[in-house]
Design a protein that fits this description.
Layout (H helix, E strand, L loop, with lengths): L2 H10 L6 H26 L2 H24 L2 H46 L4 E9 L3 E5 H20 L18 H6 L1
Antiparallel strand pairs: 1-2
Helix pairs in contact: 2-4, 2-5, 3-4
Length: about 180
């Protein structure tokens, strides 16, 4: 980038270069970025079908591990026949995630690049305690990463794009909860 643009960018953002303002500014930018990523992900993928595919993959993996552990030859043969079907599920899930990633990667990288130029060498936040290798003052890249990751998980669950992390194999996208099964 040209030096003139860097100077202009620093002058235009001088208000946001001091610590309380820079922390809030980066937090709000990270929040907007996460919201945009969630919206793009939600509209670019078939979330319900993706969750069903992931559930089938997890279920197959659990059954395969159980059959290997018990050395059950019949179950292993049955699971071997289902392997092609599972490859289709894995391919579909990978394509859906890649599609959303390809749409969002360039805008995200450009935003991060502009912010890293603006806050290069700046301490943007202060922790109330010392962290090994960092200290009490937090540089831009660590603060942005903390803000982004802190908001990503709860918002991905709120938008319904987070994979179901239940690996027990008892619940999936279209199964009933244990309480509702007892009532029926």
């Amino acid at each position: 980038m040209s030096e003139v643009f860097k100077i202009w960018l620093h002058q235009a953002s001088s208000y946001f270069l001091s610590i309380p303002h820079s922390s809030l500014f980066i937090f709000s930018i990270a929040l907007v970025v996460v919201l945009v990523v969630m919206l793009i992900y939600r509209f670019a993928t078939d979330v319900k079908r993706l969750q069903e595919s992931e559930f089938e993959i997890r279920k197959y993996t659990l059954e395969l591990n159980e059959a290997n552990r018990k050395n059950d030859k019949v179950a292993l043969r049955r699971l071997k026949r289902e392997e092609i079907r599972l490859k289709h599920f894995r391919t579909y899930a990978s394509k859906q995630r890649l599609k959303a990633t390809l749409i969002t990667i360039l805008p995200l990288m450009s935003i991060y690049f502009l912010l890293s130029i603006t806050f290069f060498g700046q301490q943007v936040a202060i922790f109330p305690f010392e962290i090994p290798l960092i200290g009490g003052y937090v540089p831009f890249y660590i603060w942005y990463l903390l803000c982004y990751m802190t908001m990503y998980l709860p918002l991905s669950r709120a938008f319904g794009v987070s994979p179901n992390m239940n690996f027990s194999g008892t619940r999936g996208p279209r199964t009933l909860s244990r309480d509702s099964r007892k009532r029926n």
